Amino acid sequence: MAKIYFFVAVVCSVLAYFSTYGKPPIQDRFGELQKKRQRMFFYFLLIFLLVSFSGFRKIYAGGMDEYAYRARFDVIKVMSLSEALAFTPNEPLISLVFYIAAKLFDTSQGVLLLTSILTLVPIVYSFSKYSIDFAYAVVLLFATGQVYSMFNGVAQYLAAAMYLFAIPYLYKRQFWKYLLVVLICCMFHTASVILIPIYFIALNRTDSIKGIGTSLVVLTALIIAYNSLGSIINATGMLDNYMFVVEEGHHGVNIITIAINCVPAALAVVTGNRTKDDKATTVCANMCILHALIYIASIMDVYIARFALFTCTFVILYLSRITKIFSNEFKIIFKIASVILYSIVCYMLIDNARYVLEFRLFL
């Protein structure tokens, strides 16, 4: 199974490379237009392959979301629009996605295909807009295991993908526009409310004690809110569909996974002085630190790691953007080493997942 996964990763990285390759002479207008069309062809072919690979297969062998979302599709399929929106009153947009899928497709595979489109298109767009090396970012999307595991949290990862549209509002300091994006994310998944305080730490100096300390404060507030989830549900009656998280006993994330997710944060701290004037990179660097702190906290409970779904794409953007400060020789070494390191850990996860690539082609 892992061989197929990494084969698709290689194909996608090649398509990503050709979608950005080649800059014809400015005076050759016909050649410039032709090159642009060629790049767009490979760009959309990449999106098509990514969406097909994710949308026409089982989500994740170890997760329960697939069964829950397939069951929800069958329930919403017979509802009216108003009934569907009322089905999850705190998360109306995810029910709207299910309702649209039910109108477009006959089987529950359709909702997986639709959510694949809505999730992957913003991710690929953010790579093309904010990464320094588009092909490298696409490789990391596979190597970090995101393509494998992102649909074990369909609604949350969809919210995380929508959150990428908030990037310019973070470094341009436009709070109300940022808040609007976060509120939209909350209508996909209520856990998105934790994104609000991120605005206030996004441009911290990553090489300062104050910056790291502020991230720790945000993480502490997040853990307190998580540990209070049961009380919040009992007091308000809201989020009762997440009561199972409180009632179940959970193990922590394994130490290898935690260690590899701390590496970009360490890099962000070490190189903070060299990237302090690049606001987009600083935003991504602070996300790396928060990402690492979330994984460290997940030693207590694996469910805490689910908050890292909001930060993992920023890690890829950061690793791509940070390469611009390296020499050409070290840049090559850094890219190869990072892909190999992440791929080894990813392979360990995928190799044990029997159904990760069981394709379902019926809609």
Gist?
This protein is an all-alpha fold. Helix content is 68%, strand content 0%. 40% of the residues are buried.
Major β-sheet profile: none
Contiguous helical run count: 19
Structural class assignment: mainly alpha
The helix/strand series, from N terminus to C terminus, equals HHHHHHHHHHHHHHHHHHH
Beta-strand content: under 5%
- Total strand segments: 0
- Straight-line distance between termini: 23 Å
Which outline best applies? globular
Fraction of residues in helix: 55-70%
Molecular structure report:
The structure is a single chain. With 363 residues, this protein is mainly α. It is 68% helix and 0% strand. The protein is built from 19 helices and no strands. It has helices spanning 2-20, 29-55, 65-76, 81-87, 92-104, 109-130, 134-143, 146-149, 154-163, 167-171, 175-186, 209-227, 229-236, 243-247, 255-270, 272-275, 279-297, 312-322, 328-350. α1 runs antiparallel to α2 (29-55), α15 runs antiparallel to α17 and α17 crosses α18 (312-322). The longest helix has 27 residues, at 29-55. The chain starts with a helix and ends in a 13-residue tail after the last helix.
Structural topology:
Blueprint: H1 2-20, H2 29-55, H3 65-76, H4 81-87, H5 92-104, H6 109-130, H7 134-143, H8 146-149, H9 154-163, H10 167-171, H11 175-186, H12 209-227, H13 229-236, H14 243-247, H15 255-270, H16 272-275, H17 279-297, H18 312-322, H19 328-350
